[in-house]
Amino acid sequence: MIIEYIRYVIPADQEQAFLSAYRDAAAELRGSEHCLDYEISRCVEDPASFVVRIRWGSLEGHLQGFRKAASFPSFFAKVKPFYERIQEMRHYASTDIAGAGGGASG
C-alpha cells in the first residue's frame, strides 16, 4: 500500500469550486480497483490549505493502473483547474509506528 498526499493552497473564492471538483472526481476514484480510499482535509489554522490523501494498493497501481485507465482523463479534467495550486504531490509508505490513542473507541 502507498499513500499519496497532495497539498493545495486554495484561495477563498475558489474553495467551493475546488471541493465540488473533487466531489465529482471521486466517482473515478471509487471506480478504480487501485484506489483503497481517499479523503480531503482542510487546515483549521490556515483554511486555504487542503490535503488530499489517497491510499493506493501500490505505486504501480496508481501510476500504471489508474493513470493509464480510460477514466483518468475524466478525473484529471475535473481537478486540472487547481493543478497550479499544488504545493506538494508525493507518495509515502507507512512505517511500523502506528496505533490508536487513548481516546479511540472500540
From TrEMBL:
InterPro entries: ABM_dom (IPR007138), Dimeric_a/b-barrel (IPR011008)
Domain ABM, residue spans: 2-92
SUPFAM superfamilies (alphabetical): Dimeric alpha+beta barrel
Pfam families per UniProt: ABM
Name this protein carries in UniProt: Globin
The organism of origin for this protein: Sorangium cellulosum (Polyangium cellulosum)
Lineage: Bacteria, Pseudomonadati, Myxococcota, Polyangia, Polyangiales
